[in-house]
Amino acid sequence: MPVDVILLVLFGALLHATWNAIVKAGSDKSLDAALISAGGAVSALPFLAFLPLPQTAAWPFIGASAILQFAYFQLVAAAYRTGDIGLVYPLMRGCAPVLIAATSGFILHENLSVGTLAGIMTISVGVLTLALEARHGSGRAVIFSLANACVIASYTYVDGIGARLSGNAVSYTLWMSLLPPVLLFAWATSQRGTLAVARHIRRNWWRGLIGGAGSIASYGLALWAMTKAPVATVAALRETAILFALVISVTVFKEKASIWRYVAGVVIAIGGLMLKLA
User: Which residues cross the membrane (predicted)?
Assistant: First the structure.
């Protein structure tokens, strides 16, 4: 994998950990997740006029992705209501690349080298070590996190294929971002009422814009990378976001970190190096 691709995926990983921290810090996880999704759509709108439309073959994937993204944001909110970021984030992000690596040969016919597989597994072991070491959480947090790992693997496949068919990964990403907030706010309004949703938007709109811009940029970089390298490799490297989440959990949320979290961080870094050398 070229160095420029690796660096951009790592920058995207930083952005991803940051917007997850914004959801974790919020008072209403579901509405904050919807706000971040909406912020991504708002950030995308100014650029649509300057980009070509995705190819016709990509539109079914955009629709499928919107439904999976709706499920993803709902599960993110549910997981953060019941568990620490130090438990939830590693489980969600660590299991997904294992699922993708195990099935990409069958689904995408991508042949991964032994070195690449070793790098993917090393990153995943490091990430899962962080989750197992986490002190706080519940059975529900684990269930929500594992369910979301399956959703992440699913939309990674859908969007990895869709971005390749679209002819322009950036255009695909921006169009894909428009429908999920519609679904999320329609659901929130049906559950909470228009007044409660409007009140939350008025008080927290800035969180949505900041987190949404980071979310769409992070995913756009990953999808672009998937047009340059195998999907499983990019998906695994993207999970180095847990290193940034580790720093945020300690410095911002004051979660206790034992030596094992730092050991896991080193293991993840080694996995990233293995992917570069593979």
Answer: 6-23, 30-51, 57-80, 87-108, 114-134, 141-158, 170-188, 209-226, 232-252, 259-277
